[in-house]
Amino acid sequence: MRVLAIVLAVLSGFVVLAGYFVPTFTEIQIVLLNWAIILAGAATIVGVFNLILVHADRIHKREKGGTYSGILLIALFAAFLLGLVLGPGHADMRRLVNAVVVPAETSLMALLAVSLIYGSVRLLARRPDLMSVVFLATAVLMLLASATLPFGQASALNDFIRPWIQHVLALGGARGLLIGVALGTLVTGLRVLVGADRPYEGA
Amino acid sequence: MEDAVVCPNCGEQNPADMPFCQHCQWRLRTLEAEWGTDQEVRPSNAPASPQRDKSEDASVPDWLRASRSQASHDSAAFGGRLEAGRQPAAPPSDDDLLAGLAQQDQPQDEEIPDWVARIVGMSESGSPGQAPSSENESELLEGAPPADQAPSAEHGIGQEESQSWARDSLPLATDIGPQEGANRYADAMGTQESGTEKSEINEWLRNLDAAAAASPEPPAGPGLSASENVPTWVRRMTGVPDGQPQETPGPADPVPDWLSGSPGRSGEPVSAPPSSLGIPTRSQGRPLEATDKASGEAPAQSATSAAISRGVVPAFPLEDIQKLDVDAVFASMQMPVWMAGVNPPEATSVSDLPPAAQEEEPIAPADLPSWVRAMRPVVSGVDQAAKLEADKHLEGRGPLLGLQGVLPALPGAALPSGRPESHSMKLDVSERHRAHARLLESMIAAETQPLPLQGTGQFRSHRMLRWAISAILVVGLGANVLTGARNFPLPAGVPNESIAGIQAVESLPPDATVLAVFDYEPATVGEMEATAASLMHHLLLLKHPRLAVISTSPTGSALAGRFLAGALADRAYMRGVHYVDLGYLPGGLAGVRSFAQNPTAAVPLGASSEQVWDSSVLLGTRRLSDFAAIILLTDSLESGRVWIEQTAATRGTSPLVMVASAQAGPMLLPYFDSGQADGLIAGLNGAAGAEIANNGLPGLVRRYWDAYSLGLYLAALLITLGSTWHVGIGIRERRAETA
Amino acid sequence: MTTDFLSSAAAILLTVMVLSYLVGDNPAFRIAVHVFVGVTAGYVAAVAWWQVLLPDLILPLVVGSAATRAMLAVPLLLSGLLLMKAWPPLSRLGAPAMGMLVGVAAAVAIGGAIQGTLFPQLQATLESTDPERLGSLEGFVNSALVLVGLITSLAYFQFSASVKADGSVRRLGLIEFVAAIGAVFLAITLGVLFAGAYSAALTALIERLHFLASFIGLG
Fold first, then answer.
1. Which ipTM was obtained for this model?
2. Residue A176: which of C44, C52, C154 has the nearest Cβ?
3. Which of B240, B417, C9, C153 has the most CB atoms in a 10 Å sphere around its CB?
């Protein structure tokens, strides 16, 4: 199984990569990509199964938080059965998403506002260095420049400072980060294709 | 258990008053402790004065009293006979164990039994010889039960056990009369109780001594050959004819000093040990009677023959010793003082006897409780009880020469064996070891444990800070929301990327097929709908495109339906009529690449498994480049990067307009700057321009703008104040440290 | 109507339960989060079945042609093996399917990184230094700052170091100097990103407050 996994990974990877540069491999690239889509869908199911097993095990062992795990499993099975019967596009399923998923996730995002301010307030207490000062100064400047003043606005901030910081100072750093990420992706992908890294072997 | 004593050999606990270990028969108390004296234990040591008072006489049992009377009678007669044959005592040496006996002042009431006097001889003064070395004596006495233990009833030793002990200790102790015992001894030794007995005894002793002095070399061969130095009695017993060269014991088996110091060998009389000493030592050989009759005499005889065949001369051949009457020896001797207070044990069963005393039957293992057995060390292949029972080792050297089974099978004793004993490899883990192991494991585990948080004081202040920030934000923003104030104007300046996006949308042909990618999570629904509403409303309003909705997020389809039915409700776009839902595109970048290469193969059916590619909405659309534009709604850099990278080659001239969250906008800006994206509307700031361009429709940006601006100012204020506060505290602390 | 009211009430309840975390961790917040995770997981599983496995695998195998079925034999087998990863004793059987997924994803990532980011971004950087495009001094300075920011940011992530005479491990002096400048540009970039993240979270909070206000008839 281990050898088969390595062979599949390397072979499929090279064929797909060849499809980028050699037109002959485009068709087989499409086939492999469609297979990958199917496998990704199956992987989603596997992820949900794993979630069920983890929480079921917590309930079985009567660990702390087992009650919450029970609530989670009940909600999971209810939503799955409803979606299996009605279909995801059904109005009731949309209503379920709007009633549960959207409010909960949006509220969690709202909590982030408080956490970000709290973290930035305490940043200099934990790490008083030049980089922290530059970071906080830039953040405050951007916050001030993104808003408008009541009864008018500060043109200097909105029309010059903010665009200049975003399109000049931050653009260079952002581009550097993007190129660095691309280089890292390139190296990591090549290591996987040559078999040096095998994240699919598991534990 | 009160005053329990731990055996140094096997580690078992024993009662404090036990002189020997119940399990391995190891001596627990030294002879000094037994005798209550701090002097070295030597045979020459004068025993305690046998001062007997009348009370002691009353408590002395009848058998003891009878033996004393017999002993006193016989010793008187024996002492007279020995007087004439007394030789000057040989100079005592360190190896002369019994030499010291001659130096002891015999109390008047202590008379030496005949048998003792014959063996060791008596000096002219009647005093015993010099005290032998304590080392040899300790060797002799090692393992021997103390004298006061043997007949003690407190230790549960029975009559028979005391007799067997006595037999073990005193080879000549019998229950016959002294005269008869002497006769039997004389017969066994080949001598008669006559006037010539003394001279003959001295003769053979002298011969033995001379033989030992003359021939220190190891024996040349097996067997005992007769020589002029071999006593007659020895020859008679072993069957060696006269005239044959004597095979003397080698340097490994020297003649015992107590023999070398005896009269007839060195020419000096060796004082007989005082009768009061009466130390029952195992060195004096096995009892005369066949105490191991159950085991038969044949093994003893064979053991003796074996010893003789090895070139050693047993001083007391087992066969002859077994024939002697032990009780007679006791009867002939005067009971020493230290035995005066000893009472014979009660009649007990054989099972109460220690294993060494149960010589009528094979030594059975002790019947220990299960919990005691569990505590015993794991020793595989070694059964101590079996060892004791099967101990038939014949002593081939030292003072125990010729004796068999005198010493118990001590664990670790050097038994002649051609094969080393097998020991269990099982680790004997005690509770203490387990405790230490648990402690070590906890110490190692603690290394990976996170350190506990700081004190509650700081934690309380952190919680107060969070509450304060939450209260300021919620109250401030809530008040603005509730009041619906519009005090903060929208920004007048529109970012270039927003303008470019608006222009790209406005340049689309009407009724074109546009691909709308809803790649944002439910968490950013509020911002994304507010950001995209103006642009999408402007697009739908101006161009009436046919939309194809797709998402790489499982919830994207639901969010698209919510957006179209909520923020763009006035456009009344209906599914299946104005737009189609291509559903969920799994696989991340692989799925996007697949869709970019061949959309119909990647998504053959719609979200509800309906045929979409042949519908009126997507009529004539088969490739990615067939779409007039791609509107990408994303809240993450990853999603935007994937769509930009994977569709670059197959998008053709179709513009790509990104509507991004404020958190992803700055990182997606390089793609717009490089020309890979035709427009970027990031956050409310970017959407404000689109809303202005759309004549303020639908107005979500305007609705949120006041609270948005207030929130930005509050955040800037809190960050500034908090940072200044902590900087000031840090400066003050550093000044305090330097001061 | 009733259904809409119930869904709105549930939304309000969940919003309040989650926002109660501002006071501190409490059972209401935990219940709300667990309900959210459960419903999301169930919905996602239903979406994966209806929109991926059924149309892409099951239906073609049932109603498709022989060639289609033959082509789907491999993903069918691999999907079956992939499902074994849910059970730890059989998880090793899912390695081939995971291998193919990872291999394909790695190849796509490589192709996208090269064609979609590396070349275009480098090309854009070079074009920004084109004197014909600069136009003015301001443009020149801005382009120079962008270029400096790019180079120094990349140098900041250069971690090759050597052991010095005093035993310390340090990078080359020039790299250290350039990296220090890059750290400043990165701090500015991260500050901008922080402001954007806070803006997104703030907008979410404002949207929730508006939702609560609209439910009670205000706002």
1. 0.93
2. C154
3. C153
